[in-house]
Sequence to fold (326 residues):
Amino acid sequence: MPAPPSDRWRRPRAHHYVVFGLYRVGSLLLWILPFRALLALARGLGSIGWALYGRRRRIGEANVRQALPGADRREVRRLVRRSFQFVLETVLESLLLPRLARLPADEVRARISLQGFGKLEALKGSGRGVLLVSAHLGSFDFLGAAMGLFGFPCHIVMRPMKNPLLTREIERCRRVWGQVVLWRRGALRALVPALEAGANAAFAIDQNQRKRPIFLPVFGRLAACDRSVAALAVRLGLPVAVGYALRSGPGLRHTIVVEEGIHAGEEKDEVALARRIQGVLERMILRHPDSYFWVHDRYRTRPPEERAAGAPVPSEEEAPVGGARR
Fold:
């Protein structure tokens, strides 16, 4: 695989080595400290973030009220505070991936339970690559990495870090379980041939999309959604699997759930497929609201007609894909 773009842009500088050294020291502490203590630390830091970052707290509360209109004020505040904790837990799990990657593959597989995996196997039986779609729900970073342990290694597209040493370390850790990292610049040129050759790819597509979005109802309100998965699936004739992973036991034990499988050609229109995927994502989020990234500014990019009018445009005909009007 070609070197990450950041390696071509510049060589590591002195401060990169310092930061990378601190990262390695921190990684050593992650090996030493018990997971329960690390989890408590992450949740404590998340609670501090909830108390300090008022803007994100308000965004989270608005998002929860949109998705769960029946939730009272206490429940809204609880879910937003839990979301701050979830963000720090996710960072912790990402930092612990190298720790897991050093264990024998059979030992890691033994820590994971599978639900609905037959849906994914049925899609793969067509001989085509599968587009695995998730949200920033549960252990989404672990999901993409762990699929290789069960015969479904995935390509993922990531933005290189400013520190090229950390970029290379991320790529090395992902490669252990068969995951292939494509760095964002020029990723499509490498991804399309890989998909056509039968490779799989994983995406998290539940965040605000600024470039060439498709506007769909998200929990009953129009939001700028990513069109890439639907476009790839329709144009290349690829199946789509929608699922998630949750930490399900003491230590680093997880459950991987394949919520729905969509066979190639089942949806022939990109917009229809994107709406269907969005509906599945919302169903998953509403099932596990305690493990979702509510504090993201999901509705930041507005439809052109709404910006021109200066006020929200009613979308009764387009809603409801999501939970706000169910």
